[in-house]
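Appendix C reproduces, verbatim, an entry submitted by the partner laboratory led by Prof. M.T., so that reviewers can inspect both the input and the predicted structure.
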Amino acid sequence: MPLSDRSVKSCSVLAIQADGSAVTTIQGISHDDDWHLVQSAFKECHGLQCGYCTPGIVMSTIDLLEENPNPTEAEIREGIEGNLCRCTVYHNIARSVEEAAELMGGAQ
């Protein structure tokens, strides 16, 4: 989750540390029926798994693509590390990030 424009893991932040900060969660990145481009890419490329890890990976992807709009596969894997998924070997997740970069205009 971004906390005042800095991506953090919600499990490692105490509520008092967020006091006075802007907090964006997965629910805050889409509007009505319009999904964020990263969410759309995950749906299109089958990067969605059981749902436990997906919000954290989507939020990490948004942060990654804001910092690096055209990441290599190695940079993608490094950018989402720390988000553990037990359902996959990350291939579709990495492809989803690549697709999101293309949708957001980063990949050429």
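The CA atoms of residues 29 and 36 lie 6 Å apart. Additional entries are available on request from the coordinating office.
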